[in-house]
Amino acid sequence: MGCVDLAYFSKELSPRDFYLGLFYGNKMTFTEILAKDLGRTKKEVQSFLYTAPDRYKVYSIPKRKHGFRVIAQPSKELKEYQRHFESLYPLPVHSCAMAYCRGKSIKDNALAHRKHSYLLKLDLENFFNSITPSLFWGVWSSEGDLPCLADQQWIEKLLFWNSKDKLVLSVGAPSSPLISNYCMLYFDKALSLYCKGQGVTYTRYADDLTFSTNLKNILFSFPSKIESLLQEHFSEDLIINKSKTAFSSKAHNRHVTGITITNNETISLGRERKRYIKHKVHQFKLSRLDNDEIQHLKGLLSFAKHIEPKFVESLNKKYSDTLMKEIFEVKDE
């Protein structure tokens, strides 16, 4: 099999045809394409990529409830390389994917389910770190011929982190969201088709799978069906975190990726989050927040404006437009 042909870089091609055509020529290798795009020599690119899987800063951050999440942060230069890969390869992503997709957000994820009475939420365990080169190439081979072996090896070095002598996607690489969505392509297609036949809406926000319907009791059979689909597409590599499986209905609070769905079919920040934001604004009024806390508050207010703008309007009335403006005028130190 040949390597990349620059003739395929045509804006008139659909993303799928563009992507499939990248490796159908026989004029340039992957590292030559990347070198040209980066303004470097082929030798420089290969020398850098050779050690790329080890160019990560690894640290842990506490999870929201318990345990720690391992973050592998690529070096600044490796991030640049990975972003160039993203721009060169418009890999296809299923429409049910809501995370890391331009024009979509957790708001859209919640809105997709707001008119349904019954909700099921599932979580995939250790999502990014479970995605390996073999999963990546498995999806690629379903779409078309694989690139030559040398190019496969260079691409793996660029995109995957060396964790305990095993290449996996890292939480922290700018290319990981694209690759993870791409690796879920055929699973998402199969699950979406099944859900459509059952009268169920399905969306996926990274490792969070959400299902909703107005048909009572139908969702109780879904976890076992999804386990079967995961086994079919990923063997034992991707599994459900059963401790996070949650069923809910209009009789209880319904939450989708941190957003509350009200019984009036609207979305809300939720009482606790709104109470917390009000408290922080009051603390700012009393000059009791340091700069880090103020920057945090700015982020909360921006998020609130996106999800529930009427709540921010109520804050403007209570604390005055002037005070709210002052919060956003504080610069990050």
Question: How would you describe this structure in keywords?
Answer:
three-stranded antiparallel β-sheet; 14 helices; alpha+beta; 333 residues; four-stranded antiparallel β-sheet
What does this protein look like?
This protein has 333 residues and is an alpha+beta fold. It is 46% helix and 15% strand. The longest helix has 17 residues, at 291-307. The termini are far apart.
Provide a quick synopsis of the model.
46% of the residues lie in helices and 15% in strands.
Contiguous helical run count: 14
**How many extended strands?**
11
Biggest sheet strand line-up: 6-7-3-8
Instruction: Kindly name the structural category.
Output: alpha+beta
What string gives the helices and strands in order?
A: HHHEEHHEHHEEHHEEHEEEEHHHH
Helix percent band = 40-55%
Radius of gyration: 23 Å
Q: Let me know the largest β-sheet.
A: 4 strands, antiparallel
List the helices and strands and how they pair.
Elements (H helix, E strand, L loop, with lengths): L14 H7 L8 H9 L3 H9 L5 E7 L5 E7 L1 H13 L17 H6 L6 E6 L9 H11 L5 H11 L1 E3 L2 E3 L7 H8 L1 H14 L2 E5 L2 E6 L8 H13 L11 E4 L4 E3 L2 E3 L5 E2 L2 H15 L5 H17 L1 H11 L1 H9 L4
Antiparallel strand pairs: 1-2, 3-7, 3-8, 4-5, 6-7, 9-10, 10-11
Helix pairs in contact: 2-3, 6-8, 9-10, 11-12, 12-13, 13-14
